[in-house]
Amino acid sequence: MTQEEKQLLLKDLCARLPYGVKFQGEDSNVYTLDAANYFALQVEDVVFKPYLRLMSSMTSKEWVEFCDCSAKDEASWVMTENRQKFIPFQNREDYLNSKHFDHRGLIPMGLALEAPDGMYNKEESEKESEIPIPKTIDEAISTLEKILSDEDREYLLKNGAISMHDSLGRWIRNEWGLWTGSELKNELEKKGLEHPDDMSNYIIEEFIKHWNNKL
């Protein structure tokens, strides 16, 4: 490992300290990075290879969060590995670190290892796969009511549907078959909506109306 590569790795790992990134030790066992072994990495000529996720492994839910975290006025929040407290993050780089994505390209350089499926995001992937594609607009509203956090709902009420066009709207278009065809798309077409952008915006606006009526 060159000095330049080591400095790049140290810079990357330092930003991951709050999020419990896993790494492979010299004995080939898997450990979790903390301040103590990070200090050892700095003072000893030891190579710790972190396990990171490819950017291409980002789930639809994570894409929504990734887009939102830099768009919202207030900090978003991410749960730590021990699930006992929350850590605020203010920008996209923090979010990528919290989800252990290889946004610096360390894997192709041989400075990091590709994380096995389920090492970090097994629970999130399972939850996402459990969300069925709604068949009607009412089902779509009901689904959004279940999956959106209080913070997301407050943000929508304050900023309107267009504020989530490239985050939540993109997720709806991609995951609910508005590009490829679905029963939900057919129902929206009956209302005169032709483009998936307009369809996702309509769904979010209907959700906002629904939620305003509950307040």
Describe this structure as you would to a colleague.
With 215 residues, this protein is of the alpha+beta class. It has two domains: 3-123, no CATH class; 131-214, no CATH class. Helices cover 48% and strands 9% of the residues. The strands form two sheets. Strands 2-1-3-6 form a four-stranded mixed β-sheet, with no helix packed on it. A two-stranded antiparallel ribbon has the order 4-5. A hairpin with a 6-residue loop joins β4 and β5. α6 crosses α10 (196-214). The longest helix is centred in the C-terminal third of the chain and has 19 residues, at 196-214.
List the helices and strands and how they pair.
Layout lengths: L2 H14 L5 E3 L5 E3 L2 H9 L5 E4 L7 H10 L6 E4 L6 E4 L2 H7 L14 E2 L7 H8 L7 H11 L2 H10 L8 H8 L7 H8 L5 H19 L1
Parallel strand pairs: 3-6
Antiparallel strand pairs: 1-2, 1-3, 4-5
Helix pairs in contact: 3-8, 6-10, 8-10
Describe this structure in a few short sentences:
The chain is of the alpha+beta class and about 220 residues long. The protein is about 50% helix and about 10% strand. The protein contains 10 helices and 6 strands.
What is Rg? 20 Å
- How many structural units, i.e. domains? 2
Q: Name the shape in a single word.
A: elongated
- Neighbour order of strands in the largest sheet: 2-1-3-6
Count of helix runs: 10
Assess the beta-strand content as a share of residues. Answer: 5-15%
In round numbers, the mean pLDDT is 78
- Supply the helix-strand structural class: alpha+beta
| Portion of residues within helices | 40-55%
Largest sheet: 4 strands, mixed
User: How many beta-strand elements?
Assistant: 6
Low-confidence stretches: 71-89
Q: Write down the secondary-structure element order.
A: HEEHEHEEHEHHHHHH
Oligomer status: single chain
